[in-house]
From TrEMBL:
<feature type="binding site">
    <location>
        <position position="76"/>
    </location>
    <ligand>
        <name>Mg(2+)</name>
    </ligand>
</feature>
<dbReference type="InterPro" id="IPR000760">
    <property type="entry name" value="Inositol_monophosphatase-like"/>
</dbReference>
<feature type="binding site">
    <location>
        <position position="78"/>
    </location>
    <ligand>
        <name>Mg(2+)</name>
    </ligand>
</feature>
<dbReference type="GO" id="GO:0046872">
    <property type="term" value="F:metal ion binding"/>
</dbReference>
<feature type="binding site">
    <location>
        <position position="187"/>
    </location>
    <ligand>
        <name>Mg(2+)</name>
    </ligand>
</feature>
<dbReference type="InterPro" id="IPR050725">
    <property type="entry name" value="CysQ/Inositol_MonoPase"/>
</dbReference>
<keyword id="KW-0460">Magnesium</keyword>
<feature type="binding site">
    <location>
        <position position="58"/>
    </location>
    <ligand>
        <name>Mg(2+)</name>
    </ligand>
</feature>
<dbReference type="GO" id="GO:0008441">
    <property type="term" value="F:3'(2'),5'-bisphosphate nucleotidase activity"/>
</dbReference>
<dbReference type="Pfam" id="PF00459">
    <property type="entry name" value="Inositol_P"/>
</dbReference>
<dbReference type="GO" id="GO:0050427">
    <property type="term" value="P:3'-phosphoadenosine 5'-phosphosulfate metabolic process"/>
</dbReference>
<protein>
    <submittedName>
        <fullName>3'(2'),5'-bisphosphate nucleotidase CysQ</fullName>
    </submittedName>
</protein>
<dbReference type="GO" id="GO:0000103">
    <property type="term" value="P:sulfate assimilation"/>
</dbReference>
<feature type="binding site">
    <location>
        <position position="79"/>
    </location>
    <ligand>
        <name>Mg(2+)</name>
    </ligand>
</feature>
<keyword id="KW-0479">Metal-binding</keyword>
Length: 240
């Protein structure tokens, strides 16, 4: 099984597990239980299937031994715990492989929408929409995103998890996803790998590349957008 096939299979399996939990029985505990069970599934499978690789998971105690590894799996077992707990569809499961700091392989499952998107099976991009649609957090949209949207005349599209927002660009539901204000490597590694495989622009807000498997996994900002909108976004950022 290739790395991309493994990532896709595991993201899908974790999503199926999460969809199958008994909401009536678990009540308000469903988010925490979902995080725990999906993490256990992913970590056990990756340690079994790729025992020589490093591993970084939001729900697992960090092992600094990963810093000496060229290949490191970076996972978020449940991206969008709030949305999952509210029984929405804008949450995701992230499974990615960073090689020498680069998001090389990724799969993002959107279980509530019945789809898993993978770097190993890119889809054709839908037609552009103009004026563009920009994805922002439904609870705390960053100031920079709001300012850029105003300068570009973009339509704001509130949405939940980072993975759901990034995949909305891949699926042609928006043109731009700009985030600033706090993320970690597990929030954006798989989305970055999938977006890059689909030909999208992926970078930090200053245009520099996203670098993974760092001692401090804090990676607070990113831009995922259609190539045609990258330069206008950077020009708008420069005016803020």
């Amino acid at each position: 099984m290739t790395d991309a096939e493994l990532a896709t299979a595991l993201a899908t399996q974790a999503g199926e597990l999460l969809m199958g939990l008994d909401r009536a029985e678990l009540g308000f505990k469903i988010g925490a239980e979902g995080d725990r069970l999906a993490n256990a599934l992913l970590v056990e499978a990756l340690r079994r299937e790729r025992p020589d690789d490093g591993l970084l998971s939001e729900e697992e105690k960090d092992n600094p031994e990963r810093l000496a590894r060229s290949r490191v799996w970076i996972v978020d077992p449940l991206d969008g715990t709030r949305e999952y707990g509210e029984n929405r569809t804008d949450w995701a499961v992230h499974v990615a492989l960073a090689v020498d700091g680069v998001a090389t392989v990724g799969a993002v499952a959107l279980p509530g929408q019945g789809v898993t998107l993978s770097s190993g099976a890119p889809l054709p991009l839908p037609p552009l929409q103009d004026p563009p649609r920009m994805l922002v957090s439904r609870t705390r949209p960053p100031r920079e995103a709001l300012a850029v949207a105003e300068l570009l005349g973009a339509e704001l599209v509130p949405m939940g998890s980072a993975g759901a927002k990034a995949m909305a660009v891949v699926l042609g539901q928006a043109e731009i996803y700009l985030h600033n204000g706090g993320q970690y490597e597990w929030d954006n590694c798989a989305p970055a790998a999938v977006a890059q495989a689909h030909g999208l622009h992926v970078s930090r807000l200053d245009g520099s590349p996203l670098v993974y498997n760092q001692a401090n996994p804090y990676l607070p900002d990113l831009l995922i957008c259609r190539q045609e909108w990258a330069q206008p976004v950077f020009e708008a950022l420069a005016k803020i």
